[in-house]
Design a protein that fits this description.
Blueprint (H helix, E strand, L loop, with lengths): L6 E3 L2 H6 L6 H7 L4 E7 L14 E6 L2 E5 L5 H7 L7 E5 L5 H4 L2 H10 L6 E5 L3 H11 L1 H11 L8 E5 L4 E5 L4 E6 L9 E6 L4 E4 L7 H6 L5 E7 L4 H5 L5 H10 L4 H11 L3 E8 L8 H9 L5 E4 L7
Parallel strand pairs: 1-14, 4-5, 5-6, 6-7, 11-12, 12-13, 13-14
Antiparallel strand pairs: 2-3, 3-4, 8-9, 9-10, 10-11
Helix pairs in contact: 11-12
Length: 313
Amino acid sequence: MRTSRRSFLTTAGSLGALGLLPDAATAQNEGPARTRLVLLGTAGGPRPRNTRSAPAQAIVVRDAIYVVDCGNGVARQMVRAGLALNAIRGVFVTHHHSDHNADYGNLLLLAWTGGLRTPVDTFGPPPLKKMTRLFLEMNEVDIEARIADEKRVPLAPLIRAHDISVSGKVFEDDRVKVSAALVDHPPMKQAFAYRFDTADRSIVISGDTKYSGNLVALAEGADLLVHEVMFPEAVDRLVRNVANAPDLKRSIVSHHTSAEDAGRVAAAAGVKVLVLSHFVPAEDPQVTDQMWADAAAKHFKGTVVVGSDLASL
């Protein structure tokens, strides 16, 4: 397949050429109002990887940061990306697989130790409120010691956790409106995609899902769609050395989206840019970035970006 403007890898040069990474002059002219997407982690699955971090995204709107998913190490990835932990204003969990929520509580606790003093609204399927309460209880000794010894503001009142169970608008402030759509990720009964609409951009995060008509509707006309992807031909290699290989393969194939089908979703939704992320497998030398891009470009005629950790779009 001939590579055209439809398929780009996430290098600074290609992103800049597409206007996804502003140059210094552009950034200065645009000021702090520009909405940015930062890919904090692009691996799929709970096992730690060498080259990709666990799933997480940050959407930066002026002086506020909204985090989608909290895979292991998300706080460190934010620091590596130059994002202030105390600027977090919202956290959105797509579903309760551990690669997406393992550091939900830790992110909030570490943001607090990093100077967070303003409320953070958090959203996700049940039992997010219960998880929040239990996390605070588990860390009560540390939290209470820091309040007494370091004179920090109490943490618990800063975290406003919300359970969500249906599609629709979930949050709005003076910077962003956030909508959610139920997607198809068995065995999880409730898994969500999120759409962020700001003054200058619309960004959709798919979460984990099979091909989803609800996601197509949510992403209609969006500037950026970040979609999880699987390379079916490589799944056998991924599960080769595990005792539960047949069941693991069945599970992976049944509730993830191939890169080719992610292209179909992007085409049906009419998005401008498709960003591939949550790679399954996350590390397979036989699957190149160009192969991921070409698979998605079979059906999507817009721009395809192969995501990488800390890429800013």
